[in-house]
Amino acid sequence: MTTERDYDVVVLGAGSGRSVLSEELAHLRTAIIDCGPYGGTCLNRGCIPTKMFLHVAEVAGSLPELSRLGVDARVDQVRWREIRDRIFDRIDTFAASGPEGARSAGIDAYIGAARFVGPRRLVVAEPGGDVEVTAAQVVLAQGASPVVPQVIHDSGVPFHTSDTVMRIEELPKQMLVLGGGVIGTEMAQLFWGLGVEITMVTKGPHLVKGVGEDIGRRFTELMGERWALHLNAEVTSVAERGDGIHVGLADGTTLVTDQLLVAVGRRPNTGDIGLDLAGVEVDSDSGRVLVDEFGRTSAEGVWALGDVSSVHQLKHLANDQARTVRHNVLHPDAPKPLRAKAIPSAVFSDPQLAIVGETLPQVLAAGCDAVAFTQKLGDTAYGWALEDTTSVCTVVAERGTGVVLGAQLMAPQASSLIQPLIDATARGLSARDVATTQMWIHPAAMELIENALLGVAEAAGT
Ligand SMILES: Cc1cc2nc3c(=O)[nH]c(=O)nc-3n(C[C@H](O)[C@H](O)[C@H](O)COP(=O)(O)OP(=O)(O)OC[C@H]3O[C@@H](n4cnc5c(N)ncnc54)[C@H](O)[C@@H]3O)c2cc1C
Ligand SMILES: NC(=O)c1ccc[n+]([C@@H]2O[C@H](COP(=O)([O-])OP(=O)(O)OC[C@H]3O[C@@H](n4cnc5c(N)ncnc54)[C@H](O)[C@@H]3O)[C@@H](O)[C@H]2O)c1
Questions:
Q1: How many C-beta neighbours within 10 Å does residue 56 have?
Q2: Where is the Pyridine nucleotide-disulphide oxidoreductase dimerisation domain (predicted)?
Q3: Residue nearest (by alpha carbon) to ligand 1 atom 48
Q4: Exposed site from 65, 68, 161, 258, fewest CB < 10 Å?
């Protein structure tokens, strides 16, 4: 027998969707549904565990580098299971408290896979039986999942994705990472830092999209000194043999590995959940739920946020959208637009990459007269301390006004260093104003940003 329940607001997905249901909605009848651990991708298998592992990997991976500075050190042993369990004991305990935490805040928390059976009408397959849930407003926040190329899927060969690889029992000797995007690069960094021999196979001429041609090329060269890189490559065959997994490439190369990690993108979770019955339109190419500037889908009273509907799959963006959608659910007659400008992102490799806004070619292609300036960290005082030879910051600004339009960084802690440039891009500030209306601590790494701003202000003629 199916139980039926009716609500004012139901959220599908307890990742970023959970924060839609804050205190401000306490006067409404609300529910949240998730089939996986509460906290979604970021907490359980994304941002948080990767960065906890990457910290360890970065420290361990940097030891051989010390010899350049006159200190010889080496890693004697990596206690993988201990590292893994320390990280996931903390995460799993937190995630397990999610449903109870929601219930104690007055939100009905369902644990089970949901599918639509009509407009704003869902069936949740709970352990105790199906529950039919209806609501005046529904928020779609069911995220995305790893894409697996057909050739791997059809081969029957065991493989990992980012969902599973951080929970393996033993570190392999070798790992082949398929995909040189953000996940592939962070995972390669993580396992390389812990002593695994990495081979990376990817489409395209360099790792990580969107950082600009120059940084993309420099970064790819750097990573190529650490692990074997097969660029512009296509996998044509995969088979398991006695000596390991054989991966054949279109150029005739055969690679043999202990473990295969697939990281070739993530597709929104929109298939097979009856979105057509709900009247929710989906882009057939990308699988994304189509939303307007306010996060409204094509179905009356249905909103969407995060990876299920965004071009950029980023946690801070999903969080920002959750805040906006929360407002819009409460004030549908006075909705606020989702933030579309100055969306920053970072890759937590070593060195880190960080970007915001546009690259110079993108700005010029859009018809704006702009200039760019690149500052090396090695030419600042802190860069001397690091003996840095690779870190750079490029700032793009409008010619004549010097308004900052974007920035790309490759540097230690680039994800933090970029913040004044995110501020400048978001608020349309001039590079000279940002550089000269405050003091910059000497001799801090942040002088990289100060000098880049002064350089681009000069180039822009301000
Ligand atoms: C390895 C990795 C590292 C990452 N690192 C970063 C980072 O450093 N910084 C960053 O900004 N972003 C990072 N991301 C991206 C970030 O994790 C996502 O952008 C973000 O978590 C998306 O949040 P969301 O709420 O849209 O989806 P999710 O957090 O995925 O939540 C969706 C939820 O919906 C549930 N669900 C799906 N379908 C159903 C259904 N039919 N019924 C019931 N429940 C369902 C799922 O179980 C899930 O809990 C990373 C991603 C990965 C994979
Ligand atoms: N630090 C962060 O913010 C962070 C970290 C991890 C993930 N994420 C988010 O997760 C998203 C997904 O990450 P991702 O790395 O899976 O996707 P991605 O789109 O960033 O990279 C996929 C890579 O795989 C390559 N590729 C695609 N198909 C291939 C194939 N068949 N064979 C070989 N290579 C192939 C692509 O050329 C690309 O380099 C990212 O776009 C990002 O938004 C963010």
A1: 17
A2: 343-452
A3: 40
A4: 68
Please write the tens of the pLDDT for every residue from 223-273: 999 999 999 999 999 999 999 999 999 999 999 999 999 999 999 999 999
- Integer Cα distance of 395 and 378 in angstroms: 17
Domain residues for the domain of 260 are 150-264
What is the CA(450)–ligand 2 centre distance, in A?
A: 32
How far from the centroid of its chain's Cα atoms is residue 333's Cα?
32
Strand, coil or helix: 17: helix
In this structure, the answer to whether residues 101 and 46 fall within a common structural domain is yes
Looking at the annotation, which residues are catalytic? 442
Whether ligand 1 lies within 6 angstroms of the CB of 198 is answered as no
Q: How far apart are CA 455 and CA 432, in angstroms?
A: 9
What residue ranges line ligand 2, CB within 6 angstroms?
149, 178-184, 186, 201-204, 235, 263-266, 312-314, 345-348
DSSP 343-391: --EEE-SSSEEEEEE--HHHHHHTT--EEEEEEEGGGSHHHHHHT-SS-
Does residue 236 fall inside a structural domain? Answer: yes
Instruction: With respect to residue 49, please indicate whether it lies within any of the assigned structural domains.
Output: yes
Which of the ligands is closest to the CA of residue 310?
Answer: 1
Specify the length of the chain in residues: 462
Name the nearest CA neighbour of 80 among 64, 60, 96, 62. Answer: 60
- DSSP label at 341? S
Assigned token pair, 163: 């969902």
Say if 337 falls within a structural domain: no
| pLDDT score recorded for residue 366 | 96
Rounded alpha-carbon distances, angstroms, from residue 40 to 33, 91, 113, 184 = 11, 11, 13, 20
Q: For residue 394, what is the domain's CATH number?
A: 3.30.390.30
Tens digit of each residue's pLDDT (9 = 90 or more) over 349-363: 999 999 999 999 999
Ligand with an atom nearest the CA of residue 151: 2
Burial call 191-204: b when 16+ CB within 10 Å, e when fewer: bbbbebebbbbbee
CA nearest ligand 2 atom 33, residue: 202
- Reply yes or no on whether the pLDDT at 1 is more than 80: no
